[in-house]
Design a protein that fits this description.
2 domains, 13-stranded mixed sheet, 370 residues, Aminopeptidase, 35% helix, alpha+beta
Length: 370
């Protein structure tokens, strides 16, 4: 059985690359098919703003000519500048349950990274910490929420058999009690009075400015994460345009002190419910399936929530949770996933526990020296 690795350089090869998971996950009821058009745009190295500061090698594996696996190796200059390390990342990994195919893919990714002078490769990140991150290693009992990864249990065996070792675990916390915690409701008036802050919903009429306010705060409070990578202005605007149609303005909040934005809570309805219904295509019927599926969305994902360091310990984080409950539950959102949280982020874990949350899924980031 011949295994060959080919660099993806043409539009036709990229379509084969993007469509491979549709065969690999056939029959898996938990897999959420991404929109093909979105995947093609994300991997367009000539247009996507991420590739203004990053290079990528895209590889496709074949078994006797049949597409059998894929991977992307990435060298991000912004990561290097932020962390002072010449490291590469890998992402978009999919593979048949075959160690030799996986090894050939990772060999290609490592060779590409070494040729660029990188001394370590980490992943999966598709393409970085601001998008799809981590290999699912615990919690295979249901589909992922929006912008979270999913894979078969044996992917971890393939990665570890080819040299990958755990670097960081990322935890998804589930809050599945739709009742506002009694203590939280009781203390909220006092918290707001003492904290001297104001909470407001996102202003969709001022969306471009709101996006920039969110980016500025996000880039500061996310520095606590080891896999942090700042958003460029172009990247955040690009993401904002993608997410705008799916935003529910009743569950996205800004915190202000004396008119200054000091915190943000970015929560989104779990539109993966619609993506599953669309089966990867908007046309001819996918868009209608997505619209019909909206009424079935009962879970939100708290994508990011944080406060600038000098404004912490005022109760702003508690206010974010309180108002997410207050405005979300009447709209039919009966649960929330807080994801992801690095395993050693004790403060966030303690907050989740106090709110009745439980860790229910684990995503692993691997590393390997080159």
């Amino acid at each position: 059985m011949a295994i060959t690795i080919e660099p993806v350089t043409t539009r036709g090869q990229l379509r084969t690359f993007v469509k491979l998971p549709y065969r690999l996950y056939r029959g898996d009821v938990n897999w959420v098919p991404p929109l093909i058009v979105d995947e093609l745009r994300k991997l367009d190295r000539s247009k996507h703003p991420f590739f203004k500061h990053a290079a990528a090698g895209i590889f496709l594996a074949r078994h006797d000519g049949r597409p059998a696996g894929r991977i992307v190796a990435i060298h991000d200059e912004l990561w290097e500048k932020t962390h002072g390390e010449r490291a590469a990342t890998w992402g978009w990994f999919e593979c048949e349950n075959d160690v030799e195919t996986a090894r050939a893919l990772f060999d290609a990714a490592r060779a590409w990274a070494k040729a660029r002078g990188c001394t370590r490769i980490i992943g999966p990140m598709s393409p970085n910490a601001n998008d799809i991150v981590g290999l699912l290693v615990k919690g295979f009992d249901g589909p992922p929420v929006i912008m979270m990864s999913y894979n078969p249990p044996w992917y971890a065996d393939l990665v570890e058999a080819t040299g990958g070792r755990k670097w960081k675990d990322l935890i998804a916390w589930l809050l599945d009690n739709p009742e506002i915690p009694e203590r939280l409701a009781r203390i909220m008036p006092m918290v707001e009075k003492r904290g001297k802050f104001k909470l407001r919903k996102i202003d969709m009429k001022d969306f471009p400015a709101e996006v920039e306010r969110a980016r500025a705060v996000y880039n500061e409070f996310e520095k606590v994460n080891a896999i942090y990578t700042p958003f460029t202005k172009e990247e955040f605007e690009y993401l904002g345009k993608d997410l705008k149609m799916g935003i529910d303005p009743d569950i996205v909040f800004f915190a202000e002190v004396d008119g200054k934005t000091v915190g943000v809570s970015l929560a989104f309805p779990d539109h993966n419910v619609g993506f599953r219904a669309a089966r990867g295509r908007l046309f001819p019927f996918g868009i209608f399936r997505m619209l019909l599926a909206r009424r079935k969305i009962h879970l939100i994902r708290v994508l990011s929530m944080g406060v600038l360091k000098e404004y912490r310990n005022r109760g702003i984080d508690l206010a974010f949770y309180y108002y997410s409950y207050k405005y979300g539950v009447p709209k039919g959102y009966f649960g929330a996933e807080m994801s992801w949280v690095e395993e050693d982020n004790v403060a966030m874990a303690n907050t989740a526990v106090k709110l009745g949350g439980k860790p229910y899924r684990t995503y692993r980031v691997y590393e390997q020296a080159l």
